[in-house]
Amino acid sequence: MNIGIIIGRIGGVDGVALETEKWIEVLQSMGHEIYIISGQFQERAMNPERETLVPEMSFFSPESYWSQKKAFFQPETDPEELIEHLNLYSKVIYKKIIQWVHDQKIDLLISENASSLPSHLEMGMAINKAVKKLGLPTITHDHDFAWEREYRYISTHDEVNRFVKNVFPLLAPNSVHAVINTNASNTLKERFNRSSVIVPNVMDFNVPFGVKNEKNAQLPEYLGFGAEDIYLYQITRIVRRKGIEVAIKLVSELNDGRIKLVITGNYADDAGSEYYHELQDLVHDLKLSNQVRFAYHLFHNKGLSPSNGDVRFSLSDAYAHSTACTYFSTYEGFGNAFVEAVLARRPIFVNNYKPVYMPDIGSKGFKTVMLEENHLTGKAIEEISEVIHKPQRAREIAEYNFDLGKKYFSYETLREKLEELIDKATGLA
């Protein structure tokens, strides 16, 4: 089957792009031919025979940037110009999608979050029209919905809010929904009477990950720490909902100078770097400057190094040198970093982030030290200390969790879900 994937950006490190790459890999292993149409190919070479660039579909295109600003951030008094703009550029994208489908002889479409989150209004509208016009079986891979982002996608203009309501999510009769958690599935059913297939984020449990090697042996030296130190890794971006301040407080409470916290992510998504500066102040106030490293400059998701010759380590390298991982998020759509830690055979300390962790991950039986409302109790600190100071205990937990992860969050699980989705979609069209 020729499967066409529509996505605003592919090749980056955001969750949508990463999971799409995994879907592509598994779909190809199932014997399908994959074609991609996207507004941006990031850090990956384009294959012109299978991949089509439509600049207007980029989230950073002038057209999308302007419409997001006028719809949500700096609305004009009269929305008429905005509505005309949306109609015009959605038609441009619509025509290119239709032509692409005909040129590549697409049999089934997959819309990657572009039909659920209004982060590109014109693209969502174009996909909506194209799916209904073509009548092809369609899967919408819905990672996020507008109502999950509080006020981000609420406009001062009723016309814009009606537009968003009519387009997002896609409710075409020839489409089926893939969602990433139970809460999203329940909400779709309650709001729209639409059934969905829950497809968790996955990892390839057949490929070694988080393994020490000759290259990453240099990592402690680059961090300015020693091989005898005990490493806790926070392998996330620096944004407030990641609860990184709890990990810093944990280091203080453990009261062991050998324990080091390494934070791998950057603060590019932290508005005004406000949260990052708060974390820096906390490190200073707790006198932990010798135990906490903000090391974003040393890491790249794929381990790619810049052209200036600086050394960069991959996330796999980071896990390889961790004794355990901290993951005290207050909200996640799923929780890639949790599954990564399981794959890397590392214990993980986690907050019971709502509404996803217990229904979709914790209930599977993983052994963790879990906080409630990010409260570091004496009991939790004692359990964490036992895990990180008793290597045999840590290994037992890691192996147990790895086996569970392979059962629930592997490529084999994804293949089963994709087979179900394709059957449902082709049965509707």
β-strand amount: 5-15%
How would you sum up the major sheet?
Answer: 7 strands, parallel
Q: Look at the structure and give the mean pLDDT.
A: 94
What would you call the structural class?
Answer: alpha/beta
How far apart the termini lie comes to 15 Å
State the shape: globular
Might you state the CATH topology name of the largest domain? Rossmann fold
Verbal overview:
With 429 residues, the chain is an alpha/beta fold. The protein has helices spanning 15-29, 62-73, 80-104, 121-134, 158-167, 182-192, 219-223, 244-254, 274-285, 315-320, 336-343, 357-361, 378-389, 391-408, 411-428; strands spanning 2-7, 33-38, 51-53, 108-112, 138-142, 175-179, 196-198, 230-234, 259-263, 292-294, 324-327, 348-351, 369-371. The strands form 2 sheets. The chain has a 7-stranded parallel sheet with strand order 3-2-1-4-5-6-7, sandwiched between helices. Strand 6 (175-179), helix 6 and strand 7 form a beta-alpha-beta unit.
List keywords for this structure.
Rossmann fold; 7-stranded parallel beta sheet; 15 helices; 429 residues; globular; alpha/beta
What's the topology here?
Layout: E1 2-7, H1 15-29, E2 33-38, E3 51-53, H2 62-73, H3 80-104, E4 108-112, H4 121-134, E5 138-142, H5 158-167, E6 175-179, H6 182-192, E7 196-198, H7 219-223, E8 230-234, H8 244-254, E9 259-263, H9 274-285, E10 292-294, H10 315-320, E11 324-327, H11 336-343, E12 348-351, H12 357-361, E13 369-371, H13 378-389, H14 391-408, H15 411-428
Parallel strand pairs: 1-2, 1-4, 2-3, 4-5, 5-6, 6-7, 8-9, 8-11, 9-10, 11-12, 12-13
Helix pairs in contact: 1-15, 2-3, 3-4
